Amino acid sequence: MPIKIPDGLPARKILEEEGVLLIKEERAILQDIRPMRIAIVNLMPEKIKTETQLARVLGSTPLQVEMTLISMASHTPKNTSAQHLLDFYRPLIEIQNQKFDGLIVTGAPIEQLPFEDVVYWEELGEIFNWSLTNAHSNFHLCWGGQAALNHFYNIPKYQLPQKRFGIYTHRVLDHTSLLMRGLNDEIPVPVSRHTENRIEDFANFDHLQVLMDSEEAGMCMVLDHKLRHVHMFNHMEYDSTTIGDEYQRDVAKGDDIQLPANYYPNDDPSKVPVNTWRGNGHLLFGNWLNYVYQTTHYDLDEIGTDREGI
What we know:
This protein is of the alpha/beta class. It is built from nine helices and eleven strands.
């Protein structure tokens, strides 16, 4: 089945040109199935790029997926037009009574700030709390994962001596997990962050399981068995050029940035990078959707009712 995204969203034209199967409202309602409802809190500055990346990997599943974009009322993005936000995003207050099978919270380029200094930290906490009763499973990306772990468990993040940046080999630690099904023992993963989480802070939480890590890049992915949250600190959704775009942006800003590791052929920025993670990225997000599908309620009104007492 294809993914259903809002008509007019710029991602639609890009994905259609790539051959990604999309579905329109009039066709979706003819199919006698309930679509998977996925809400996305997109905190990235280049929102159209992130929308496209996420729609691409969410569309690589046999399930019909319906995507809803949530905006932050306490923050006005500088790199996205007000009209785009008005046309395609909805604040929490407008959808707070709706139920979703999944919620994705992206990263944000504010990871070096203390959590409490982030302008929308309080509002994000409200979204996290809302998700306990209105979303069956969450997928938190990069800073979004760090933020959720801090919000729910007060787990800290730590500043790295320099940006961890490039493509790093990661180990799959538990192939019996539905989220890891079909992934190779070792997979390349795009990494782009200034901070990290550390395994010693997880010692008192038996329900937090590390599913992927790297000797070079550290922890990559954690599954919260209690809340059905996935925390992915890196970026399997990235395009082939995303790491390069970030590198050129940092160079233009005059940042002290190292060449991204294992990204450019022969470490030559003039050469086109080879995408070595695309297939694993599609499989990972497809596994999460399957994980959600296997455990969610058919009746949307029942979502969140099995978390009483949390």
